[in-house]
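Q: What structure does this chain adopt?
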Amino acid sequence: MPRRATASRWSLEDLADALHSASIHLLRRLRREDVETGLSPARLSALSVVVFGGPLRISALARAEQVKTPTITPIVAALEREGLIARNPDARDARAQILRATPRGRKLMAEGRARRVALLAGALRDLPAEDRAALRRAAALMHQLSRREP
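A:
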């Protein structure tokens, strides 16, 4: 929580700071469930991009993960060895490859998401109805914010 003001007098920076901090702490708490996947955070993140944002080229995956292509290449190779993604030739460019999630990769991500959602749903169940309603509205607003260009 911001230290500079009471909640009724927060500046935009105070609100942004509180949302940032709460989001990070919530994600860290939920991320504990990811141990069940057996994947490193880097592999899990890359797989998530391919599952939810693919099919895509390796270069696009690197951009999404905010790393260089040489950094993502061994991660892709490991995911391919584990049968979680497949590489296919790009029909428009014979030099490029398209990454697609395999059924096993999609299943692993779906199960991981289900574990996270179940954990969060359990915590939400303990909140009063008016707090859950406020969080529904906040979730919609945060989703809108996430789609805006900075």
